[in-house]
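Exercise 3.2. Students should predict the tertiary structure of the chain below and write it as structure tokens, then compare their answer with the key that follows.

Predict this chain's 3D structure.
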Amino acid sequence: MVERRLNKKVIGFGADVKTKKEKLNDDLMAELQTQDLHKYGLIPEIIGRLPVLVTLSHLDEDALCSILTQPKNALVKQYQYLLELDNVHLDFEDEALRAIAKLAIERETGARGLRAIVEGIMTQAMYDVPSDETVERCVITKDTVEKKQPPEFVINENRQPIVRKTKRRRTRNRAPAS
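Answer key:
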């Protein structure tokens, strides 16, 4: 639809032949208008309920890496906080973050798929770290992501165990029943 309106040939001798991936990256969808949706087959009642037409492009590796690390509630920060509760420092190598982003691109899951990937990487470490009080640092490497190897643990044998404060239940001072 949009191709015809913009006089771009899609078949024939003068056509600009593109692969499926190249078509996805094309800026053609940015030229989408309501008349194109109508020609495609949508009824005007539905088109009228779309106040704004927006096209989205795929996230690249840099964008996915920044989503993993920069927001206030980024996944990396969440897992660092969880391991800090057990007095363990969590590090993600830059190559590991890039490997996670590449995996999300391969799976075509975008930013939402990052949680599943990081969860798969961190699951075993989340079970192992609290039970071993000698672990001081956990490092997620590129091999951890790509080759499914366990994270690297830095062990300190002289480490003092964590003393956790337990919360006591408050009881009300009640007058004895008569």
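Discussion points: Residues 88 and 136 are 5 Å apart (CA to CA). The first helix runs from residue 2 to 5.
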